[in-house]
Request: fold
Amino acid sequence: MSVLKQILSVVCLVCLLSSCSDNFQKTKSGLLYKIIPGKSKGSAAKPGSVIKFHVLVKQKDSVTYNSFGKVPAFAMVDSSARSYDITELFPMLKVGDSAVVVQLIDSLVKLQAGQMPPGMKKGDKITFYVKVLDIMNEMTVAQASYENEMNQQKERDIREVEDYLKSKNINTVKTSSGAFVEILKKGEGSLPDSGKEVSIKYSGKNLKGEVFDSNIDSTFGHTDPFKIIIGQMGSIPGFEEGVKQIAKGGKARIYIPSMLGYGMQGAPPKIKPYEHLIFEVDLLDIQQPKLVAPVNPMADGVPQSQSSGAQGNPSKNGEKNVSKE
Reply:
């Protein structure tokens, strides 16, 4: 589906649902909803089945999430769905149905013991626009569908990054999974093998050139080399694949499609969902990792931590590498 078609499909859905009567119905918990029936003559979703759907979420007048043209959402239908949640609506929906669901912030706050959602205020609302794509009764079928959607998204990502590189006349080497590496300096010696520890200086930015993290620029609060052990999934996949293309002393720019980076979730607030990234890296050293004695997590009666969070850091779980002097 082209970008224009994606936009038109979302606009048509929102206009269709918005043009309907404002006489919303209510679920048992008071959730406001209205359903536009599709053409399916099948049965509604049953408990235990998996519903596949696109969803667009608006908070106030801003779209905060939109799966149209991306990976659809998959959810198990549960007869005991969470109160005041869109899952309450699932047993009412058939394939092809569209729906609009409204959460009133005042009601949501009462259910959350007075906790106000970030960025919201009294009187606000959250609106969900839903389009049901499929209802699957077999978990294996649902899993296969999900994996297919993920693969399609990865292919879309790779094409988008390829188009970007072509528009900038940038020559790169493509890794086996689909990251792109512009080798600025190959370095000397052998490339890093699985099991070797690499020390890296890096800066990360999006395709617009906006820097979100760096251990070169001291304003980001951490300047120690970033260390990972190759093959132990200590970083986002595209980052490690790029680093493996250069030797000690090497420099490169790694262009990472979103699904080889932070994917559907992003790393808020700095990295948006489905955002492609560029990392400029200097490979400082390659060595055999040192054996570290296990740490007693309850030493002195206090839980011990060896790392602290850093949004946008290339580590797979968003942790900042901390070296001890």
